[in-house]
Amino acid sequence: MELKYFIMAAALVGSSLIAADYSQMSTEDMVKMRGSVPVEERDAFRTEMRSRMQNMTPEERQNYGLGQGRGMGQGMGQGQGMGQGKGKGMKQ
Average pLDDT, stretch 35-64? Predict the structure, then answer.
């Protein structure tokens, strides 16, 4: 039984060591990866991309297709919440 837990722990540690080092990648390569980053690496990817974007001029962001409304800016994924309130919805 102890061997089973050891193997599971070793697998978890090993998988975390395989994660990509985004700080070593070019910005161009990172932009190409958008939308295909594995779930377990998304936080590291976002952190590195945000760090790079803060140091870019608006022109550089535009050249990479990272202008406003393209994902990595403020409110990413926030959308409109539960909608615009135009439907019938729940009555009080």
Answer: 94
Q: How many domains does the chain have?
A: 1
Can you give the pLDDT at residue 16? 53
Angle formed at CA 78 by CA 44 and CA 25, multiple of 5 degrees: 25
- Tell me the three state secondary structure of residue 19: coil
CA distance 58 to 45: 21
Q: Which domain holds residue 52?
A: 23-72
User: Averaged over 11-16, what is the pLDDT?
Assistant: 51
The two three-digit tokens of residue 69, written as one number? 């409304």
Residue 86 within a domain:
no
Using the predicted structure, report yes or no on whether residue 74 has a pLDDT greater than 50.
no
